[in-house]
Amino acid sequence: MNCQKFEGLASELARGQMMDVELRSDAEAHGANCPSCSAQLRDQEMLSHGLRLLGTQMNELQAPAQLEAGLLTAFRQAQVVTQLPMSRNYRRFWFAAVAALLLIVFSVIAFRMRNETKPVQYQAVVPTSVPQDSPVFPKEETPQKREVVARNPKSVRKQRPVISNASMQARAGSNRKKDNNVVANHATNEVATEFMPVGYLSVDALQDGGQIVRVELPRTTLVKFGLPVNMDRYNERVKADVLLGLDGMAHAIRFVQEKRSQ
Amino acid sequence: MKTKAELTDAELLRSMLSGDEESFALLYQRRHSGIYRFALQMCGSPQVAEDVTHDVFVFLMKSGQVFDPARGSVSSFLFGVARNYVLRRFRSDQATVPLIDDDDETVFDQKLDEPGPLDDLTRLETIEGVRRAVLSLPERYREVVVLCELQELSYGETAEILGCAIGTVRSRLHRARSLLLAKLRPTEEAKPASEASIESARCFA
């Protein structure tokens, strides 16, 4: 223990604060041997005594009694004042809620009335073009022939009576993605064979691309490609996709059959 | 079921905020004297102390919902509010704060004139000297002396009120006591402060 450490502890010692027993004994031993530190501790003890006397004397002081009366009056007034705005706020809230509810009801009624007065017009959506360079992708019809008819009236777009060709094209273009989905869904309802080359053309010629045309052929055509034929349905026709090359010649064919429902 | 007198300060505050006047009166009776004394010891003027006490409890009835039990007790909350009002007073009107003005000894003189054990002249001089010394301290040191020494709050409670760390309270109190000793030494020993400081040089034994 040195004087610097003792100086830090002197006020704690004088105030009777709790501290480590060993530290306290060290400080007391140092204070007993060092005159200046002993005087410092004495000063601190006198200061603590003086502060304690001042605190004890002032403990008897209290606020005047009329202060409590004034505060109680203010408390009563505050209760009256604070309740009024709260009730007004609730009333405003209820007005807003009812107004919002009425607005919603009127909007729904107006929407329904508008739907009833105007007949729903179903419009076929015709895509502008279809990629023609992929013989693997199952395309069943030429774009000119394909026509997607909406089955659900809710999903049908309503159009104005007079629509220019340009706007039709633009609208069809915007619906291309949706249209492709319809084709894909439709394609999944069919079962098709692999493309088989027609005549003696090379298989590599199939990679050149072309156009697929849906045709109907006599069922006997299946025999020419080595496929079995059900004789009970001999007179029926069979659907096929013919891949026309860039030269306009038929390069390959595949046979298509409706998938049977399970 | 608890009676009103058995309720804690926080419960009384909740009840008071719901409009119970009795709870407010009880809370006031419990805490007003500490707040009043704190304001008086900080500013030295009974009128200012009365105003501060009034403002603290008006604040409590209007904005008591800002009290957060997780941050401390209701008592600490009230002391904190009182401290803010006192400091605001210091900032707004320094002239009305009679720190060491010899002409303003209203409250203390009334007490000092009362007969009894305090009639001892030495004792009276000691108390008066300490009071003046405390009032002459800078605010940051005065408030720790008032709270820790005169109000006898713990370091933790004082730190809650002042919104600082316990170590800060301890160091400020140490510094405040050194300042108080320096202020009291010339009157006690009739020596200049400079001479006293020379005598208390460290020995580094």
Describe it:
The complex is a heterodimer of chains A (about 260) and B (about 200). By secondary structure, chain A is α+β, with helices and mostly antiparallel strands. Chain A has seven helices and five strands. Chain A is elongated, with a radius of gyration of 49 Å. Chain B has about 200 residues and is an all-alpha fold. Chain B is about 70% helix and about 0% strand. Chain B contains ten helices and no strands. The longest helix of chain B has 24 residues. The chains are: A alpha+beta (about 260), B mainly alpha (about 200). At the A-B interface, α1, α3 and α4 of A face α2, α3, α6, α7 and α9 of B.
Structural class of chain A: alpha+beta
From the N-terminal CA to the C-terminal CA of chain A, the straight-line distance is: 98 Å
Q: Please indicate the percent range of residues of chain A in DSSP E strands (runs of 2 or more).
A: 5-15%
Count of helix runs of chain A: 7
Structure keywords:
heterodimer, A: 262 residues, alpha+beta, B: 205 residues, mainly alpha, 10 helices, 69% helix
Write the layout of secondary structure elements.
The complex is a heterodimer of chains A (about 260) and B (about 200).
Chain A: H1 3-15, H2 21-33, H3 35-58, H4 65-117, H5 165-174, H6 176-187, E1 190-192, E2 196-197, E3 211-218, H7 221-224, E4 237-244, E5 250-258
Antiparallel strand pairs in A: 1-5, 2-5, 3-4, 4-5
Helix pairs in contact in A: 1-2, 1-3, 2-3
Chain B: H1 9-17, H2 21-43, H3 46-63, H4 74-92, H5 106-112, H6 121-135, H7 139-150, H8 155-162, H9 166-189, H10 193-199
